[in-house]
Structures are given as structure tokens and as C-alpha cells.
């Protein structure tokens, strides 16, 4: 499609550099015009349906507005929802595009092997597709036991499949959201405070005096309420300190930007800790009363001075001191943001530990403007029999590695699927729900080998994706706008719940995730676990236990409950026992020491790019989430491809021009399938390049996203595994530029 | 009455939510937009500054697009909102040529379209859709003649600029710096 102009214009220098002027359009039509396209409708003529956004994991409460013809016209935030305060992010506003996308999976598909050996998908009835999945599940159970049926899950759809699998007898599940994303921080904050940081994270940004972002791109990752609160913090004049090798959006809005050398964050954090302790800036009352191990820590950081860190991080000692003092000055109203996608260099749990320790020294745990004490609503379980006890679970797959992992590790599940690797517990078949594994997993080779080794793959999704290409059966799922689903009860400042009500019938022949899980369950004789005709019965039953009803929730969408766990913040000097071995905040982690890990974080040097190679840094754009939205017509309009950010010095060296297409090759010889445009910008260091994750789709059925931009995932072959919890550090890859199509190069070589 | 918008460049993150909200609110066809984002970077690494600007029609006080429209389709409505009456537009494109801000686009159905400040909402006392959706709350809208309107309050204590003042169009979009 030809766009009139870019939705986003990038002007190289200062203000006033907007591209002006535009030629008039085509042949002039000299006639009075009768518009056919409908204009805006007023809100009074639309019917709002309560929902919560599922474009990303923030799950913002929303209203889907439907017109008299039954069309979903727009989606707006629910005023009463603390996840969004009445405002969605661009992806949430563009959620309509997910519903209208004409590339959606429309009907069940079954892979068919033809006589000549070729394979293709054919349309199938639901009956046939569900029968096939159920029969394969029976077969696996008989041959290997139900545990051999693994599940890769994410979000609500994954939840229904998890229920099915557990009823069937398998707990061999893993989601990329743990080991490929936020796992290190779970393990680190749990080890330090005996509590999880939660989602949304319990960061009290709105009242903070100092917000510290370490590789956390608020504004580019649109974690809705946090972006809103950062804006409030700016209005309140809070100090914002952003540590990032890239001049991110957050960096541009910060008081201090620390352009750190990549992979050296722990050194900076330890130097900050050094300053707080040796300049006596830490919160003595908090530390004395609640923490364990200050003496150990003091000794440990003795030589980790700002001067020491300068040599490692490129951040000047006076800047390290100044920023540490700014934190101390605002303490305890300081948010050291734990970040979200935190798997970088394989020592990520230790980096997160350093952040947790810093938080503790500032006394910022359980304090206004620091980390608040979150509370959720516990939704009663719909009556069902106990799940059978599996003989082995995801924990056993790890074979004793990663003792502090709290969830299944995706890479381990993949490895257990490869017979060559000889895992004690072998996975023979997969169910995949709501995650596009080939673009969500590092190490494509491992993924391919595993996918080829398993006997059967069933995929449930709303869109054709790379993962559907590997499926034996594809089950088209209805979007969140077309189904009832779990009650949302994520912890927040005030406990609250939100519901989904379908705003429209499922388009095409798609079906809600709960329905798909139930149909398979029924075929497996698991009716007692699916004892309802419609999931709305479950939701209504649960809501009644919570003193409300579906009827009421349809009108309000979100409901708040009074806190039961006590106030949002810890009172001054209040007694509090932390859920750790010592009952205290562990500056020195007894658990880590017991397991043979370092009890306090240590900086270790990481490899640097070889000559002519650049560190690959990837991240988010505000208008997309994972690789799931690249084909969404509304969001594609905003950003249809990624670009590789290159510093002008590097561009000069390579004679790269703006918008020139290049292929990227990494240190292991992996090359992007598609070319990517060069963006020459000062916003990136000369030793690194940057690209937005989630592009370079190779499925032709994505008519918009196919072949647009390049996939960072293809270049992530070197993975630094975190020994503590199995996180897959993905920032240790280096790329170089190929100016000619590598495919043609090969051809020419042969000729 | 003088409707105007102020945009706080210290808070805008360039997310484009305002663009999507406009698209769904006003049924703007795919591939076109009434508002858009400009990202401008200044300096060299690591001494840099970056500004995001959500831009749209400036609803200029002295609007060349209205002056040059041969049919009167482009006109000024109450409060200075510049509008195009679709059925009177012959699609000649004169207004597109005359606008120094590139604020108008040719609708595929043959008429010229642009930001209306969501007049259908404003008439009911609501804000334009982009203002109500913005997650950083960096857009302020209202009547400049009312000292207590959001836009007047936003402009009161801050420095601001307008785009291309040299064009003499007297734009009503103020960028807080
Ligand atoms: S942050 Fe955006 S995409 Fe995520 S749930 Fe909220 S509105 Fe949806
Ligand atoms: S929605 Fe707000 S923050 Fe996002 S680009 Fe528009 S004006 Fe900026
Ligand atoms: S910005 Fe352009 S279209 Fe809008 S009033 Fe000014 S001249 Fe006219």
C-alpha cells in the first residue's frame, strides 16, 4: 500500500526540519462529491462491551464500542482500571485491527502428507481437528505417559491449555515469559525480599522522587500505567536517571542519561552501592531493622569504587557519585526499576540482585515512591477434581540444574524434545498456545531440531505465524474481543478484578480457547474438569463468590476491593518479617550461598565485539508487542518494518546510506532472511547496533508483515545461560553488515 | 472562542497512540493519517537531545487553505476550527499545496480530509480523541479565551513555540518546550 506520508517522520537535526510540501493528488475530479465512507459516530450511538486488552500482558481494562451494525468501531480504556486509568496504549487502541485482520486463521487446518512426500495444510472441520488432537494425546499417554506431552504457553489461551494438560496428567510446561524474559528478576527479588515484583511491577512511580531505569525502555515498552506514571513523575519534577548505551526515549526524558558501555551494568550498580555505604548515605534505620548482611556487603564492595567502575563502564566517577547522591537525597522515594526483558548476559539474576540490594539500602521497599506492597484478589477455583499427580514435571526436566527457577524453562523443554541430547525425561509432542516460538526463542537451530524430532505439534493461535508452519493441527482461536475468558486479578495498589465479555461473535470459524480446551477434554473423558456448557458460567460462579455477578461486571468492567493485607506501605519502624531464610532482607543471600552461587553480585567481564562486528541490541517499539502485532492493519500503518540503527561513524566506515538495505550476519555466520533498512542515527553507540524485535516474518500468509524488516531472533545464536535460574541471555551476539544479497552471492559462487 | 492545542514535548514518547485513536475515531482509511509524529534529534553521541512532536492541522488563524479553496469547502467553523465540507470539495488539491504543514491528505474517495479537532466531540464538551487517549497526558485542548481551560493553563507557566511561524499562518498548535 502506498502511504501518503510516513506516520512517523524522522528529522535529522533540530526543530523545524519537518519535510514540507506535497504534490496534489492524481486527476482532479470536478464534481460535487458524495462521501460514502462513514464519518465518526458519537459515543452515545455505540454500545460499550466490557473487556480487557490482550494485545500485551498488561491487560488493561477497556470498553469495546460496537455500532448498530454490530461492528467494533473503537476500543477505549476503562476509567476505573488502575492498569490504564482510562487510556490504552497504541497497541490497545489498535486492538480493533487484531479483530479485523483478514489474514486471521479462519478454520482448523491439518497437515497432510502427499504421496510425493510433499506436505500441505488442508481445511478441516472442528470435529476432525479436535478428534485428531485427542487421539494423539491418548497415543502419547499410552506410549510414553502424559508427561511426554509438553506445553508452550502464554497469556489467557495458554491458561486454558494448561488446565487441559494438567487434567490430562502433564505439567511439562514452560513459557518464554520466564526464562526468555523476566525470570532473573523473579528469582533475584525473591531471594532478596522473599516477595515477587509482580505484573504490573509494584513500582510507585507516580509518587517517586527519583526513578532509575537500567536498560528499561519505558515509553518504548508501553507498559501502560508505568508510562503514565513516568509522565506524572516528570510533571512532579522527579529526578530520572536512565542507564542505557542507546539514547532511548526514556533517556531523552531523563535528568541524567548514563551512556554506559554495554554489558557492564553490574559494575555501575556495585559502585553506586559502594558510594551509598562508604559515604554513609544509606538508610540506616531501614538497613538496621530489616536487612541481613551489611557487614559482608560492606567488605565486598570495598574496592568497587566509582573510579574502578569508570574503567569498566565509561561512566565518569563524579557522575556515579552525583547520581548515587541524587538517589540518597530522594530516598526512600526511589524506584530502581527492575525492568522486564532482563535476560542479557547470563549473569542477569546477579544484576537484578544488585538492583534489589540498592533498593534495600535506600530503604525503598514498602515505601511511598519506592516499591509498594501489592495486593491481588484471589479468585476462587471453580469446583473440579484434583489434578492427577504427574510422575515428572518441568522441574525434573531440568535435572537439578537451575535450582532457583520458579517456572518451566523453554530451552530445557526444547532440549528434552531432542533425543540426541539424551535427557532422562523425553518430550514427544507439543501443544503451543499464544506464543510464536520461532520468533520468541533464541537459538533457531535448537528450535528446528526439536520441532522436527517431536511426533506431533498442535498450535492454537489467532494468526498464521512461524509456529503454525510447524503444526500438524492448527486450531484457530477467537480474539479477546470475541470471547469470555479468565477473570483478571493481577495485584495492584488496590485489589481489583476485570472481565472479558465478547463484543462480537467469533469471526470466521474461530473458537474461544476455553471451548477448544473443553472439546479436547471431553474427548479424553475429562468432563469433570470441564463441567460447564459455556465459560460464562464459570466466570459468573466465580464472580458470585466475590460478591458480584456477570451482570454487574458487564456494566462496570472493573471492580475494586478493599485491601486485606494491610496498608500499601510499611509504617516507620513497623515490625515486618520477610519471607527469606533469615526473615530479613538479604543483602547477603543465604539461599544463593547454600546453592553454591555468589551471595553478593560480582562484576565479570563479557566478550566484546571482534573487529568489524557490533553488539546487537534489540528492544521494543511502542506500537508493537512481541512479533504478534506486526500484521495488525492499524499498527502496521504506524510501523511496518524495523530498521537497523547505525551510528554515523559506523555508517561512514561502511559507506552505508540512510534507508539502504543490508543483510546482517552474526559471529556464528547466521544471516537474516530478509534485508533491513539502515537508520543512521546518533542515538546509538559506535560499538553497537539496535533493532526493534518482532519483524522479518517469514510466513507468506501474513500479507502485510511478510518479509518486512529483519528478525533479531535469527541473529541470536550465542546464548549465555544464567546458572541460577536458567535465563537465556541474548545480548552476547555481534553482527556485521552484508551489502549484497547473500543468496545471490551463493548462486554466483556456484556458477 | 479560540480552540487550540498544546503539546508537551517533555512528556510525549512518540508512541503514536494519538494517531491510532484518530484513525478509529474518525474512520481514517488505512494508509492515511490526520495526525502524525515527528522525531527530531540534535547533537552527537553522547551529547544529544531528542524531541517527539505529535503534529496535525494547526487550525491556523490566518489559514491559506481556506483562502485558496475555490468552492468554499474549506472553511472556518466556530472557535476557529478549520474544516472541509466533503460534498463541496472537488478534490483540486489547492489547499494541500497551500498548507505549509502538510496537514491535509487526499481521501481515496476523492475529497480532501484533515484533522477536525474532533469537532463532533468538542461540540459535546469532550476532548478530541487524541487528547483523551494519550498515555502520557501530554496533549492539552481547550479555548484560549478561557483562562481556566486546559490549554490556557498548560501555556501559562511554560515556554512554547509554534511551527514555521515565518509562514505567517498564526498556527494554533503550541509545543511546550
Ligand atoms: S499496555 Fe497496551 S497492549 Fe498492553 S494491555 Fe495495555 S493497552 Fe493493551
Ligand atoms: S499519544 Fe501522546 S505520547 Fe503518544 S505520540 Fe501521541 S502525543 Fe505523544
Ligand atoms: S495547518 Fe494547513 S490545513 Fe491546517 S489550517 Fe493551517 S494551513 Fe490550513
From TrEMBL, chain A:
Domain 4Fe-4S Mo/W bis-MGD-type: from-to ranges: 46-103
InterPro entries noted in UniProt: Asp_de-COase-like_dom_sf (IPR009010), MoPterin_dinucl-bd_dom (IPR006657), Mopterin_OxRdtase (IPR006656), Mopterin_OxRdtase_4Fe-4S_dom (IPR006963), Prok_Mopterin_Oxidored (IPR050612), TAT_signal (IPR006311)
Transmembrane intervals: none
Keywords: 4Fe-4S, Iron, Iron-sulfur, Metal-binding, Molybdenum, Oxidoreductase, Signal
Record-linked SMART domains: Molybdop_Fe4S4
Any one GO MF annotation of this record: oxidoreductase activity
Similarity comment: Belongs to the prokaryotic molybdopterin-containing oxidoreductase family.
PANTHER family (alphabetical): TETRATHIONATE REDUCTASE SUBUNIT A, TRIMETHYLAMINE-N-OXIDE REDUCTASE
Protein name per the record: Thiosulfate reductase/polysulfide reductase chain A
From TrEMBL, chain B:
Keyword Methyltransferase attached: no
All residue ranges annotated as the 4Fe-4S ferredoxin-type domain in the record: 3-32, 48-79, 80-109
Stored PANTHER family: PROTEIN NRFC, PROTEIN NRFC HOMOLOG
Protein origin, superkingdom: Bacteria
Protein name: Fe-S-cluster-containing dehydrogenase component
Entry's transmembrane regions: none
Keyword tags: 4Fe-4S, Iron, Iron-sulfur, Metal-binding
Sample GO molecular function, one term: 4 iron, 4 sulfur cluster binding
Native organism: Mangrovibacterium diazotrophicum
Amino acid at each position: 500500500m502506498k502511504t501518503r506520508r510516513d506516520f512517523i517522520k524522522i528529522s535529522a537535526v533540530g526543530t523545524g526540519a519537518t519535510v514540507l510540501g506535497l504534490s496534489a493528488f492524481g486527476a482532479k475530479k470536478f464534481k460535487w462529491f458524495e462521501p460514502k465512507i462513514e464519518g465518526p459516530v458519537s459515543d452515545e450511538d455505540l454500545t460499550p462491551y466490557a473487556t480487557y486488552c490482550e494485545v500485551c500482558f498488561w491487560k488493561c481494562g477497556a470498553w469495546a464500542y460496537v455500532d448498530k451494525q454490530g461492528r467494533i468501531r473503537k476500543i477505549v480504556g476503562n476509567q476505573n482500571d488502575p492498569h490504564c486509568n482510562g487510556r490504552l496504549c497504541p497497541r490497545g487502541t489498535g486492538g480493533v485491527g487484531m479483530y479485523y485482520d483478514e489474514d486471521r486463521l479462519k478454520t482448523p487446518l491439518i497437515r497432510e502428507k502427499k504421496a510425493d512426500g510433499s506436505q500441505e495444510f488442508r481445511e478441516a472441520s472442528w470435529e476432525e481437528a479436535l478428534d485428531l488432537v485427542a487421539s494423539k494425546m491418548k497415543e502419547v499417554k499410552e506410549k510414553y505417559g502424559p508427561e511426554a506431552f509438553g506445553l508452550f504457553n502464554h497469556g489467557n489461551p495458554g491458561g486454558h491449555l494448561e488446565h487441559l494438560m494438567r487434567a490430562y496428567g502433564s505439567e511439562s510446561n514452560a513459557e518464554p515469559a520466564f526464562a526468555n524474559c523476566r525470570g532473573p528478576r523473579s528469582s533475584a527479588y525473591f531471594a532478596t525480599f522473599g516477595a515477587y515484583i509482580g505484573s504490573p511491577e509494584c513500582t510507585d512511580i507516580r509518587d517517586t522522587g527519583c526513578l532509575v531505569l537500567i536498560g528499561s525502555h519505558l515509553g518504548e515498552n508501553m507498559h501502560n500505567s508505568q508510562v503514565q506514571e513516568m509522565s506524572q513523575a516528570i510533571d512532579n519534577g522527579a529526578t530520572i536517571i536512565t542507564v542505557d548505551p542507546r539514547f532511548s526515549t526514556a533517556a531523552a526524558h531523563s535528568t541524567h542519561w548514563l551512556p554506559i558501555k554495554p554489558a557492564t551494568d553490574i559494575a555501575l550498580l556495585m559502585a553506586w552501592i559502594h558510594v551509598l555505604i562508604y559515604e554513609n548515605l544509606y538508610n540506616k534505620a531501614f538497613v538496621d531493622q530489616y536487612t541481613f548482611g551489611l557487614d559482608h556487603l560492606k567488605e565486598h564492595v570495598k574496592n568497587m569504587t566509582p573510579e574502578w567502575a569508570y574503567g569498566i563502564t565509561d561512566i565518569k566517577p563524579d557522575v556515579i557519585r552525583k547520581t548515587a547522591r541524587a538517589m540518597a537525597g530522594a530516598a526512600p522515594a526511589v524506584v530502581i526499576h527492575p525492568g522486564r526483558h532482563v535476560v542479557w548476559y547470563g549473569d542477569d539474576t546477579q544484576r537484578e540482585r544488585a538492583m534489589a540490594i540498592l533498593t534495600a539500602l535506600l530503604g525503598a521497599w514498602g515505601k511511598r515512591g519506592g516499591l509498594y506492597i501489592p495486593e491481588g484478589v484471589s479468585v476462587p477455583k471453580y469446583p473440579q477434581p484434583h489434578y492427577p499427580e504427574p510422575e515428572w514435571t518441568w522441574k525434573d526436566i531440568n535435572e537439578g540444574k537451575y535450582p532457583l527457577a520458579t517456572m518451566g524453562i523453554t530451552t530445557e523443554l526444547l532440549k528434552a524434545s531432542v533425543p540426541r541430547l539424551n535427557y532422562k525425561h523425553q518430550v514427544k509432542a507439543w501443544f503451543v498456545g499464544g506464543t510464536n516460538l520461532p520468533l520468541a526463542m533464541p537459538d533457531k537451530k535448537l528450535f528446528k531440531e526439536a520441532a522436527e524430532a517431536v511426533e506431533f505439534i498442535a498450535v492454537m493461535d489467532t494468526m498464521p505465524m512461524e509456529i503454525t508452519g510447524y503444526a500438524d493441527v492448527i486450531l484457530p482461536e477467537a480474539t479477546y474481543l470475541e470471547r469470555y475468558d479468565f477473570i483478571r486479578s493481577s495485584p495492584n495498589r488496590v485489589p481489583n478484578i476485570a472481565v472479558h465479555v465478547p463484543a462480537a461473535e467469533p469471526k470466521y470459524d474461530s473458537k474461544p480457547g476455553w471451548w477448544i480446551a473443553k472439546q479436547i477434554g471431553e474427548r479424553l473423558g475429562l468432563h469433570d474438569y470441564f463441567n460447564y456448557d459455556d465459560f460464562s458460567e464459570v466466570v459468573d460462579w466465580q464472580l458470585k463468590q466475590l460478591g458480584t455477578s456477570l451482570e454487574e461486571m458487564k456494566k462496570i468492567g472493573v471492580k475494586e476491593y478493599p485491601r486485606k493485607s494491610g496498608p500499601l506501605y510499611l509504617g516507620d519502624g513497623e515490625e515486618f518479617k520477610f519471607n527469606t531464610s533469615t526473615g530479613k532482607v538479604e543483602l547477603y543471600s543465604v539461599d544463593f550461598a547454600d546453592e553454591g552461587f555468589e551471595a553478593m553480585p560480582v562484576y565479570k567481564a563479557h566478550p566484546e565485539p571482534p573487529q568489524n562486528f557490533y553488539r546487537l541490541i534489540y528492544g521494543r517499539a511502542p506500537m508493537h508487542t512481541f512479533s504478534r502485532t506486526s500484521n495488525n492493519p492499524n499498527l502496521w500503518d504506524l510501523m511496518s518494518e524495523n530498521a537497523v540503527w547505525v551510528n554515523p561513524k559506523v555508517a561512514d566506515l561502511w559507506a552505508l546510506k540512510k534507508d539502504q538495505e543490508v543483510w546482517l550476519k552474526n559471529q556464528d555466520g547466521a544471516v537474516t532472511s530478509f534485508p533491513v533498512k539502515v537508520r543512521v542515527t546518533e542515538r546509538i553507540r559506535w560499538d553497537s547496533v539496535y533493532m526493534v524485535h518482532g519483524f522479518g516474518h517469514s510466513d507468506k500468509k501474513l500479507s502485510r508483515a511478510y518479509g518486512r524488516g529483519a528478525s533479531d531472533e535469527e541473529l541470536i545464536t550465542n546464548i549465555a545461560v544464567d546458572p541460577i535460574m536458567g535465563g537465556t541471555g541474548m545480548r552476547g551476539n555481534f553482527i556485521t553488515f552484508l551489502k549484497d544479497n547473500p543468496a545471490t552471492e551463493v548462486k554466483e559462487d556456484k556458477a | 472562542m479560540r480552540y487550540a492545542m498544546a503539546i508537551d514535548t517533555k512528556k510525549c514518547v512518540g508512541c503514536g497512540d494519538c494517531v491510532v485513536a484518530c484513525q478509529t475515531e474518525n474512520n481514517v482509511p488505512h494508509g492515511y493519517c490526520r495526525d502524525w509524529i515527528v522525531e527530531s534529534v540534535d547533537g552527537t553521541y553522547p551529547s544529544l537531545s531528542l524531541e517527539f512532536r505529535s503534529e496535525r492541522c494547526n487550525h491556523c488563524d490566518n489559514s491559506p487553505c481556506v483562502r485558496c479553496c475555490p468552492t468554499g469547502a474549506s472553511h472556518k467553523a466556530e472557535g476557529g476550527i478549520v474544516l472541509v465540507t466533503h460534498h463541496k470539495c472537488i478534490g483540486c488539491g489547492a489547499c494541500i499545496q497551500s498548507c505549509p504543514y502538510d496537514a491535509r491528505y487526499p481521501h481515496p474517495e476523492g475529497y480532501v480530509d484533515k484533522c477536525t479537532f474532533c469537532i463532533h466531540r468538542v461540540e459535546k464538551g469532550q476532548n478530541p480523541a487524541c487528547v483523551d487517549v494519550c498515555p502520557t497526558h501530554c496533549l492539552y485542548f481547550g479555548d484560549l479565551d478561557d483562562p481556566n481551560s486546559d490549554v490556557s493553563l498548560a501555556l501559562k507557566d511554560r515556554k512554547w513555540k509554534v511551527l514555521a511561524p515565518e509562514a505567517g499562518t498564526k498556527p494554533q498548535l503550541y509545543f511546550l518546550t
